[in-house]
Amino acid sequence: MKINVFRKNIEALRTKNSDLVAQIVSVKKVDNLQIITSKRGHYSLRIENITLHSLYDPLKEAEAWVDHHREKIEKASALVVLGFGLGYHILQLCKATEKDVVVFEPRLDILRTALEAVDLTPILLRVRIITGDETPPVAKGFEILEHKPSVTISRGYFERLHSRLKVLQAVKKGLKIMVVGPIYGGSLPVARYCVAALKKLSHTVDFVDCSIYKDAFLSIDKITSDKTHQNMLKIMFSDFASESIVARCAEFKPDLIFALAQAPLNENSLKKFKDNKIPTVFWFVEDFRLMDYWQRVALFYDYFFTIQRGEFFDKLKEMGVRNFHYIPLAACLDVHKKLALSKEELDEYSSDISFVGAGYYNRRNFFKGLLDFDFKIWGSEWDMNSPLAKCIQSHGKRIETEEIVKIFNSTKININLHSSTYYEGVNPYGDFVNPRTFEIAACERFQLIDKRYELSELFR
Q: What does pTM read for this prediction?
């Protein structure tokens, strides 16, 4: 092996992945890694009595490997190779196709040996080499090619990776996904945005829009003033809505059920999905301190996603929930965008300062200090008998998304004060970011927002 070959390879790789170069340069070789010269004069590699390449002609073997996978290579949009070895099969693969190639190889000592033994400069600027557990973004229609000896040496790593890649292949082809929205509330528009996003990703989506039950559900309080009877009727109504989702699922036969916060799915329905081996996902886009119903359902979902971490994660662990993850909120760029408004729209919606949202305790108190400004408040649950009444628009009705976007676009300063039921102004411990944060930004408009821990990592 020649030092100049290693130097050439390292310099080529450095332009592509300097972090990987640093790891390779510092790696120590293990004793059971043996370089062998083949009959044709090319190097092969033996590890733990397993030979990675032919001891007669490694180059010919690499050509045969490509020919064996020819059909996959031709139909693929991109190629994922499991195992680098000394790189002969990668060199041959890159001669046979111009398609993107990603190679997984967990052993840095093997990569170092390859860079020392073989001139790999023709491929190092083109191929992406991954040594960890990350799954990179790859195009729909990618194919997996295995270098069998490499897979045998690192079997555990490649079995886990192969399983993830097969799931990714299925997802890329498109799944049948049932999205279950709430009867009403702030997560309803988020559910609709999720439906649009999943369809854009080529999934077949059935949206269970439970908002059709809203008027009937809210009318329960008018039937009787007795709280016990009200609660009983609401439970019975939710059970009906939950069973109707089960019935719809039986016809749609989804690969996945994706429920948003306050979706009317009870424990019995979730057990039925589990018995039928239908994976369930729940995205809890609420403040866990304000809404505590998650305690009843979190254990019944296969995957539980949150907009908060820290203390919430600790409580989920204490309950025995294991498969939970953090996913922050976002904006739908097809909906939230910069608009050119008419004079009539500007007359209706414009102001120096505005706020869109519900009248939570902290907002009712904080906004009293803005009464001397040209200030408009849009949304529901505001006290029409308070000093704020003169600022409340449309008699405090709930504002639909189309109007909200117009308000954002026509306001000089959009106030974005996160909700709190116990602080009179800003919650100093804000540990989630609401959708309004991203929606105003997507409209390219100015906002004043209270300090939130996650902002620094979510925005540049």
A: 0.75
